[in-house]
Write a structure and sequence with these properties.
7-stranded mixed beta sheet; single chain; alpha/beta; 301 residues; Rossmann fold
Length: 301
């Protein structure tokens, strides 16, 4: 089975002791980090990569149905494999959207790889569970209607969805281009994994301290979800804090890049002060080489 992460690259400027791993979210590529990369790379080693759903073609790798082969656990295994391959230990992992939960699962499986998780616009469950009192932001019928719209006419769905998700006209074309680069069948398979999934139990076993970063007006992952994550993780004993970014849309690293960079600086500074160490105390070695008013949004468009 082919690996799901490609185009891995390391950015090394100077002798930064901390490695930052940047994992992009659904529909975009590592280019979504471009606005904050210079700030991070100035004093840190940075590892970036692309999840392969951007360039995958359904049926190109094996006989498994595209909609069945994508799972959070398998993305986590690929992240672990990449970090092992690049000899990364004790990293600060920044996961956007779906990658946030991938990072939580990977950290539970391999705590030695991670010093801190930054969970940007994360959600463990998008569908409301009324009997449990859980608010994910969407009703079950709305999610299935959205998936139906994707299956019926993917390009039309992208053109309606991206303006809500972008949060700024300035970044709409960039995001739309990335979304449209996905094979529609692959895109639907990954979307089913994300929007129908329930990874709430993963929050109970995260062994690494976390910073949840939430956009104030994110229709996909509203602040109530971030509050739920913080409460559940804290109850499980995870050290967790939350930062709110005063921006709209699901991509604050693009529309409020200075604020996101400042938050990351705050996470990284204590690690620089004490030095980066692996689980047994040895120095880490890294190989070099939208509705703003909060009203309802029709996710079908």
């Amino acid at each position: 089975m082919r690996r799901w992460c490609t185009n891995a690259r390391e950015v090394v400027v100077g002798e930064g002791a901390v490695t930052v791993v940047l994992a992009h979210g659904y529909g975009v590529t590592q280019a979504s980090w471009d606005k904050i990369l210079p700030s991070i790379a100035h004093v840190n080693k940075v590892l970036l990569f692309d999840w392969d759903f951007i360039n995958s073609v359904a049926g190109a790798d094996d006989g498994e149905e595209a909609e069945a082969r994508y799972t959070f656990g398998r993305f986590a295994d690929d992240l672990i494999a990449l970090m092992d391959e690049r000899e990364v230990r004790g990293a600060v992992f920044v996961g956007h959207s779906m990658s946030a939960m991938v990072g939580c699962i990977a950290a539970a499986r391999r705590p030695d790889l991670f010093a801190h998780l930054v969970l940007l616009c994360a959600s463990p469950r998008y569908i409301d569970s009324e009997d449990e009192g859980y608010v994910g932001g969407f009703e079950d019928a709305s999610i299935h209607a959205m998936l139906g719209a994707m299956e019926s006419n993917f390009q039309a769905w992208v053109k309606g969805f991206v303006p809500n998700a972008a949060g700024s006209v300035a970044v709409e074309e960039h995001i739309k281009h990335s979304f449209l680069a996905m094979d529609p069948v692959v895109a639907l398979g990954v979307a089913r994994m994300i929007f129908l999934g329930d990874e709430r139990e993963a929050l109970d076993v995260v062994p690494t301290s976390c910073t949840i970063v939430q956009a104030r007006h994110d229709f996909a992952a509203p602040p109530v979800v971030a509050e739920y994550m913080q409460g559940r993780m804290a109850s499980a004993g995870t050290g967790v804090t939350m930062e709110i970014v005063e921006s709209a849309g699901h991509f604050p690293q693009l529309v409020a890049s200075a604020r996101v960079a400042d938050i990351l600086d705050g996470v990284l500074l204590p690690l620089h002060n004490k030095g980066a160490y692996d689980a047994v105390g040895a120095p880490v070695h890294v190989a070099s080489d939208v509705e703003v008013d909060g009203g309802a949004i029709d996710v079908m468009t």
